[in-house]
Structures are given as C-alpha cells and as structure tokens.
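Translate sequence into structure tokens.
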Amino acid sequence: MTETTLVNRLLKDIELLLVEDNPTDAELCLAQLAKAGLKVRADVVQTVHEFCARLAAKTYDVILSDYSLPTCTALDVLELLQQMEKDIPFILLTGLPSEEPAMECLRKGAFDYVHKERRGRLPVVVQRALEAKRWREERNRADQKAREFEKRYQRLAELSPDPLFIVADEKLTFANEPGARLLGAESPEPLLAKPFLWLVHPDSRAAASGHFEKLYGSAEVAHFDGKLMRLDGKAVTVKVAATGLTYRDRPAVQVIARDVTDRKRVEEAIQSMAAFAQFNPNPVLEFSRDGKLTYFNDAASAMARSLGKENLNAMLPPETVSIVQMCLTTGQSKLRMETGIGARTFSWSFFPIKQNQVVHCYVTDITERLNLEGQLRHAQKLESVGRLAAGVAHDFNNILTVIQGHTGLLRSEPNLNPETAESLRQVSRAAERASKLVSQLMTFSRKSIMQPKRLDLNEVLTRVSTLLHRTLGEDITYQFNYSPDLPPICADLGMIEQVIMNLAVHARDTMPKGGQLAISTSQVNVDPAYVQHQPEARVGRFVCMSFLDTGCGLEAEMVSRIFEPFTASKESANGSGLGLATAYAIVKRHHGWIEVQSQVGQGTTFKIYLPVYDQVSEPWAGAAGEAAIPGGHETVLVVEDEPPVRWTVKNILEKCGYRVLEAAAGVDALAIWHQHHNEVALLLTDLVMPAGLNGQELAEKFKAQNPKLKVIYTSGYSVEAAGKGLSLEDGISFLQKPYDAETLALTVRQCLDS
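Result follows.
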C-alpha cells in the first residue's frame, strides 16, 4: 500500500494528544496533519502532570510526543502511558541527530518515530498507527469467533445422527458414532488413523480418490455414489456428500455417507449442513438464479454495519447478477474476486449449487493480508532493539544494589530519629520501584522463550506456502521440492515459520520485476571434511532447507555482511534490514547455521541446516524459600569489579559478623586465594568481569582445589544471559542484582548451610 493511499483514507475527528513544549513545533505538526486532510482535534500539553491529567479525563486515538521536554523525556511519557494501561499508539517526534533515543523508544513500545526535519511522514505514520490498532482488534475478534466455531462444529459433528467422517492426509481423522456403526465398528477408535481408501470398496477407490484430490483445500461440494467396506468385509452402497475444509489447521475433506435405502434422511442431513453458515465467522451469502440476495448470516450483517451500510445490496460487486447466472449456467465457480470498499479490500468467491439453483458466496476481508508485510517489518524492528536492554539494565542493577545495600545498613542502625528513619524508608521504597522497572527491562531484553516440539519441516512449508503466495504477490512463481522420508527436527514452530517468511521476503525484494523461488528440503550427513570448509557447521545428521531465487544477486562484500542488522542488502528501500539478522539468530538458537551463495546477476541461494530431532533439554528452574537471617563468622571472598558495589557488600557482611576478603577482578582473587584458600568458606563473585577471567571460570578453579567451597554468583544480567552453561547445583547459588542487605545476608547463610 502506497503512502498516498494511506493519506487519502481520511478519518473523522481524530483525538490527538500532543506533548510538545515548543509552540512553533506544535503548530507545524498540526498544520502538517491538516494539510494531509486529516481531521484532528488536538490537545497540547507540556509537562507529565498535564499529560496524566488529560489521559485521566479523556480518551485519545493517538499520542505524539517530543523527545526532549523541560522536565523529562519521551521515555518518561511512554512509561507513564504504559503504567496507566492505555492502549493508545505512541509516536515519537525527535529533532536529535542520533537515532539511539528513537530506537530505545521503539524498544519500549512506541509505534514509530518521525524526525522533525521529515514532518511530511507524520500523516502516514498516524494513519498506520490507527490502522494497526484496528487490525489487532479485528484479528482478535476473528480468532475468537473461529475457535468458537470449531468447538460448535466438533460438537455438532459428534451429535449428528448421520454418518460423518473427516479425512486428512488420506487418513481417517474423525468419525462419529453413526459413522462407526455404518462401517461395522462399535466405536470410532478402531477406525481412526486408518487409510480412508482402505475402507472404500475396490470398485469405488479410483473414483473416490479423484474426488478427494479435487476437494483438498477447496470449498466445493461433490456428490457421488459409491461403496464402502465394513470391517466384516461386507459392501455398503452409499450416497456421498463431500466437501473440503480446514480441520485442526490441515486441509481435509468432510464426508457424509448414507445408505441409499434411506435417501430422504441423506437429503435432510445435507440440507442441515447449511446451518453451519449461521455460525461461520466469515460472511456467507446465498443468491437465487436471478441474482437476488436470499440469505446472509450474522457475520455478513456485521460486515455491512462496519462499513456504514444498512443494506447488504449496497456493498455487493456491480457484476453480481451476471456472475450468479454464469455460475449456474456453466457449473463453474468464480473465486477470489477482489473489490475495494472504502479503506478495506474484500475477496468474493461464488459457488454454484445446481441442484437447488442457488449460488453460495463467501466473503473474506483481506485488508490485513495486504498490510502483512508492513506489520512483519514493524514486529522485527521492535524485536531487534531488545539487544540494547541487557547492557542498560546491568548498569542500573549495579547502581540499585549500592542504593539498597546502603539503605539497609543505615536502617539497621539503632537510635535513628523518626525523620531519618522515614527518609530511609522512602529511599528504600523508591529503590524497590526502580528495581521492578529494571526487572521489566530485563524481561524484555531476554530472547523469547522457545517452545520446541517435534516438527516435520515438509508439513511446516506446506502450511506456510499459502501465506507465501498471498504475501509475496502473483509475479513470483514457486517450486517446492520436498524430500520424502525427511527426518523430524525439534524446533519452535513460530520461529521456524518466521525464518521461512523472512527469507522468502528477502528473495522477493531481490526480484522487483518478478521471478522464481525454489524451496527444497533434504537430509544431509555432515562429515569432518565438510566442517573444515564451513566453520559454523558440525558433524552429524541435519535437515537442510534451501531457498534459491532468480534475483539480482549480491556482491561478495555484501554476502560477508548479509546477516548484520541494518545491512542494505537489496535494491528495495522498504525493508527494515532486520529480517535476515532475525532469521540468523533463530537458526543459531536452534543449534543450526545458514550458508549463502550468490553472484551478481545469477540469484542467491540460502541453505539452512537444523539438527535432526534427538531430545529436548529441560530448562533449569530454581526455587526459593523463606528462612531466618542469622549472621556468621566464616570467611567470605567477595569478587566485584564495581567499587561501590564491592564496598557495600563488604560492609553488609562484616556487620553480619563475617570476615570479608575483597578483590576487584579475577586476577586479584587468584592472589588472595593463594594466601587464604584454607580459610575461605564461600566465594561471592560477579559473573561478568574484566581482565579475561569471569566469575564462573574463577569458581571452577577454586572448587578444583577445594570441592567443599560454597559459591554465590551475582550479576546485573539474568542468569540466562550472564551464565551460559551455568550449572546451579548444591552449594552454588545465583543472586540477581539489585538486592538489599537482608536478601544478601539470607542468601549467604543459606548457601553456607546447604
């Protein structure tokens, strides 16, 4: 969708909250929106107090905020918005030459940012923000309706008095009780997972197989006569009504089979199937032979209301009458005819029911599909900036550790006057709130939790292929070469689908005038000789997925940097530059690697290697308990490179009665250990330290000499980010920064007593 189209899709009375302390900049922004034809009612505030007051009193469609404000920044405004749990798109206005503040705002949840020197983008960004929010709301409603419909369908199928079967992957996936009795079984269980053609009489198998091939992935209805084989070997002559559908996310065929001696009940059963349209979350319509609308479901009415139409006839395609007559005359369907209505695009499919002389029509709102590429790029941008969070959180955690530690020391002093005690209590509460905010930052900075499971890569590609066709356009032709008997992999389904989409979108961008994309799968045995030429490869059995395009190709220098974030690797300037970087990171998390081959003018080949399924390792989960906080007299070696943190820890432990030895780095700790290794009972060390020796390596050296040594690791990073391969066994604990004096003392005592 072009920017001009977005600007022309005007909204009425957009409620805008503008946080800007410069009146001239505020007027320029509003003038730019008005110039684009957007009808805006704006409130302008300059401080966070005015911002909060406005949000409490009024509902807004979008918020624009300057980055630099008199008493705060846009980050503070954004955090206030999130604390108030307002689902309002937040757009940053910045005049700063650096993009780092804008990137941080995007990471924390801002929709987009606009540089003040490019205010012309502002109307488009506002429009996209509003459309993105509307798209999310509509998608959630549609998903909920789809789930409800599937539950109703399952229940109706189970309670149906007619024999009903569902066939997927040429196997019987579902059968109700009447269907089981028709085939001579007491219950459906003995029939499930059997090849469906095994239950068809040999005389009818060829015809049934031909009907099924046409019905998979189609919404057409086929009626034919045939014979089924009962489990006792007897043949049953049946009248069959079969239709394609999606069952449990797979293309399937629904079959209603009835003995022809009870033909009347079969006809009633087929007619009762029309009731399913009432529960369909998508619009369903029916037309008579003369093109008049004779039926529509609730979803169709809701679609008309959403477009401001009181009458469904006002939104029908102009050629509806001629299409209906053509379908009934030729018996052929008219599929996926697109029309634009206002700001939305709809796809219409017409299916003739000749025996009833009517035409069924199914309508799909495909606006979100047309915007899918932009939505994917936006999601990738938000995900990529999370790498900045871990470093920032680490520094904040060190600072908060000092604040909380000293506050705890002071509050434990006897004979504090009430005013000082209250001040310290307020400082402690503020530090706790800051600690929670940093904890949220740490949660965001972690990579998303993987949910690996056994996957057939061929099935994943088959499922994604339809989305590829709709997303990448008709000027790209596809060739899928699936290797038979492909071994499974253990992977996160959503992440693997994202890798496929990212690589396909990159291939499309290298073929602006169209081309061909070949996607293949194979099993590869990697030997030591191959590893010598590919440093990232490993010896073993792997599943290989390759993408070969006929695009413009890449220069050698570009190939070497292809997976770096924000590397311009294609002619199109519309990409975020994060797609390939994201794909690379996902494959690495799955213990695989990607290889690239490309020459200018000869296309590009990506090969993704993923290990064959073995087993899924379970993540470590720690446990915490409540205990008293006694002191002790043992000797504790504290290794911390931050002097304020080290000084704080030393004072807390000495106040608890411990003897404390301190070191600023791993090298210093080695010297102290050499002199006092017989005295040290516990090592308390930061995991991430300078001078080439981290906390984990230091602890391993010490425990090799004294296996009874107790160890506590600390870090401002999470245990996942700071301690790769860290084993927390008996006598070894992890203490997340920031922590207060009470938590430190309790952890030390528990570790010594473990």
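Note: The mean pLDDT is 80.
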